[in-house]
Amino acid sequence: MTASATKTATPTATATATATIATAAAIVVRTRTAAADSAEHSAGPAAEHSAEPAAADSAQCGAEDSAQCAAEDGAQGGAVPEMGFTIADDGSYAARLARRTGDAWFPERWTLDGPEPYAVELPGHQPEEPGSDVLPMADGRVLIRRSVDGRHAFSLLYPTGPGTGELPLGAVECERLTLLPPVPGGSRAYALEPRAHTTAVWLVAGGAFGPEHIADVPGRCTGGVWLDRTGRMLALDRETAGVTKAVAVDLERGGEVTALLQIADGSDDRLLLADPDSGLLLVRSDAPGDDRLGWGVLGSARPIRFPESLRLEDAVLTPFAVQPGQMLMPESCGVALRIASAAGSRLGVWRPAGRRLLQLAAPEGWLAGAGLWSTEGVLRLPCTTGAAPVGVVDIAPLGGLPLDLRMESPGDGGTEPAQAEVAGQEPCAAQMPPVVCKPVPLQQAPLTSRPQRG
Fold it and tell me: Alpha-carbon dihedral of residues 79, 82, 84, 88, nearest 10 degrees?
């Protein structure tokens, strides 16, 4: 099996003139720190979760992050480590922090929807801190979050001829703040502020008067996946009482929270990716006994499935893109995964109906873990090398993933032979017939097959 590939590149455009600063009044929003909340609630019930932020984050990382770090310490195999490369929801723009000669960092905007990809540097008066976050907006501007003296300041950057324009949006004064992934539509941006017992959701771009506090979600939340095309429903991984469950937050109803994943009572169930068109969900859960990747369908009565093809002993699999536009056809959606191991990063391609993981060598200079699908099934991977600082590799790999299991053969490069598939229990022995399972809501998905009662 071969995958077709093309690569285009153009020289990076460089802004060399002094940056210009737009005259907009800075807004600072002060919030309570986690330490203050903890002190105020110190007399509360002992059963309340009161872990320090660092300890909670460390617990949430788990073995997966340890394996990821160990894998990335090895040879990269031609892939470039993550540089905070973020692609807009519609694939029009992307942004990252790039490095000049030495340790000087600056924002860089990529344009991806033209005839050829190109980049524009957006340097300010001084180099950026490597911990700053950037996010592409739909109008071509780049949102940047800078941490300065206990404040998180936000600005919109844009090219102005040879210079860089900057529109300050205000700041949030708090201990920690992280940007959420790009919002569908690209006109707004949100961030999460972890507190002692809750997580605050902030609208940091697209509001009327600078950063706006939108909602408080009980528990400590991480992640962030958009469930619809309007930017209303947000999925977060919420930790309460030491257990993490994905919940849905309605931002238009004051942050109303509803359960989203409830695979087993004591399991950690996280949502990694969601496709609003088809409803396909990619989850990670330890409900099967160890940490596994699984898939389900939003609003479906079918249970979560944990394919054996998405389980590799020597690598960590992280999905980063789902093929859009497959209305009501979640099984046919292509899923792109980063395969990180001690040998470096590889590319994985999988779809539920194919039930095989296709492993491909990572393109040279791949910004590992970044990419997007077209509705036609073309996977676009951003790459940067010395010869081509701005490039995109297009591959069409879905032809190697047959939809019909009868057309598969064990020698076609997949990671598992064709086998019968039982809902909630994969793989099953090839000689066993499929078991009819009683449909249950997604939140009550079983881990083992249940014979239907007559």
Answer: 50
Chain-centre distance of CA 161, in angstroms? 33
**Which of 316, 311, 322 is closest to 281 using CA atoms?**
322
Q: Kindly report the pTM of this predicted structure.
A: 0.74
Determine contact, residues 146/134, Cβ cutoff 8 Å. no
Looking at residue 139, its amino acid is D
Q: How confident is the model at residue 269 (pLDDT cuts 50, 70, 90)?
A: very high
User: Average pLDDT, stretch 303-307?
Assistant: 93
As a whole number of angstroms, the distance between CA 317 and CA 337 comes to 6
Phi, psi for 56 (deg, rounded to 5): -65, -45
Other Cβ atoms closer than 10 A to 162: 10
Residues listed for the chain:
454
Rounded Cα distance, 80 and 185, in Å = 29
How many Å apart are CA 262 and CA 333, to the nearest integer?
24
138: three-class secondary structure by DSSP = coil
Pairing of strands 379-383, 390-395: antiparallel
- Could you report the per-residue pLDDT of 56-86, keeping only the tens digit for each? 343 334 434 444 443 444 334 444 444 589 9
Buried b (16+ CB within 10 A) or exposed e, 224-254: bbbbeeebebbbbbbbeeeebbbbbbebeee
Q: What is the separation of C-alpha 29 from the centre of its chain, rounded to a whole number of angstroms?
A: 27
Task: Strands of 161-255 (E only): list them.
Answer: 163-173, 178-179, 189-194, 198-205, 212-218, 220-226, 233-240, 243-250
